[in-house]
Amino acid sequence: MVEKSLILKEAEAIKNWLCTVRRDFHQNPELGMEEFRTQEKITTYLQEMGIEVITGIANTAVVAMIRGKYPGKTVALRGDMDALPIADRKKVSYRSKIEGKMHACGHDAHMTILLGAAKLLKGMEDRIHGTVKLLFQPAEETIGGAKPMIEAGVMENPKVDVVLGLHVTPEIPVGEIGIKYGQMNASSDTIKIVIHGESTHGAYPHGGIDAIVAAGQVIMAAQTITSRNIDPRKSAVVTIGTITGGTQGNIIANKVEMVGTVRSLDPDTRRTVLHRLTEIVEQVTKGLGATGEFIREEGYPALINHDNIVDIVGENGRQLLGENKVKIIKDPSLGVEDFGYFLEESEGAFYRLGCRNQKKGIIHYGHSDLFDIDEDCLSIGVALQVKNALTILGEEDIDEEITGTDSTAY
After folding, report:
1. Is 40 a catalytic residue?
2. Where is the Peptidase M20 dimerisation domain (predicted)?
3. CATH class of 6-185+302-409
4. Is 206 a known ligand-binding residue?
C-alpha cells in the first residue's frame, strides 16, 4: 500500500467542494461555443481564488494564470467544457436540467479537476518557480476549440513548455490511470466526393454517363488504399457514410454525392490516404467518362504524446496511487481528440483517468445517455495534475513541504 502523499490528502480534503462544482456543471450542460453560463461560473470560481483570469478568447474560452514567485518554465493544464446533444436518462439527483443536453463525455469532471488543481496550486504560488496556465477549452466535441485558442495566442506570453490533459474513462476502474506512449488518437478528415455524369433513359444507358456506376467503382477502389497503399504496420480507415444520387428508377443518374471520414495515426499516412483518394476520384471517374470532385474538410490532427512527459505522468501516478495502478495502453484509438492541436505546439501528454465502479453501476461508456463517473476520481485527477505540474516546474519536493489545507474554507 503506497503511503498517501500530502498532495493527494489536500485534494481529498476538498472532495465535497469538487462534487458540488461538478454536479452543478452536470445539471447545466451547454454545447460547444454556447458555454456562456459555464464560462461565467468558471470565471467566478477563479476570481474567488484570487487567480488572474482572461476571457474574450475563442468565444467562451477561459484562460487563467498562476504565476509563481520565482522565474521558471510554463506548464499548461487543459480542461474541455462542452456537453453533447443527448438526453440524460440517469436516475440521479444531479441529472441534467436541460432537455436534450448532457455531459455524456465527462467534460464536467475535467473542468472541475482543473478548478481543483487551480485551488491547490494557488496556495503554493509563493514556492513555485514558473507559471501555470489553466486552459478551459470550448467545443472539443464539435469544431475543435483548441485550434482557435491557439490562434488567439494562449500558448504564448509566456510560451508554454509543456501541456497536460486528461480524460475520464469508464474503461479503467477508479483509482487507476492509463498512459500511452506515442500515438494515442487518430487524425480525422471529413471527405465529400461529387461525381458528375450525364442523365438519360434507363432503357438506353449508352446515351448517358452513369454517375452511380462511377460511384461504385470509386468506392471499391478507395477500399484498396488501406490494403495496398498503407504500410500494414500502420493504421488508417476510409469510410463512406452517406451516398445520394438519382431521381427515378428508370433514369441514369447524372450526379452522386458521397460523404465519409478518413482516420489515420500519423501525418505521413494521412497525406498518403488523402493523395490517393484524390487520384482515385479524378482518374477512375475519368476512365468511365464522368468527372469527379474530391473535397476535404480538415479535422483534428493525430494526438501523439511525448514519451518523456508520459514518463513523468506514469511515475507520478505510481507514487500517488501505487505501482500497479498505472496501466500501459497498448493500442491507439481511431477516435479523435483535439488536444492534438496543443501537442503540435509544445511537448506534453494526454492520459486516461479511471472513473469506473462496477458496484455503483458506473459502467457506461462516453456518449451514452447513462454515462456517469465515480466522483472519487475528481480528487485523484486534481492530485495528479498538481503533481505533474510541480514536477515539470522542478518542484518535486514541494509535496513534503505542504503544511495542510483548511477544507472548511471550501
Report:
1. no
2. 189-285
3. alpha beta
4. no
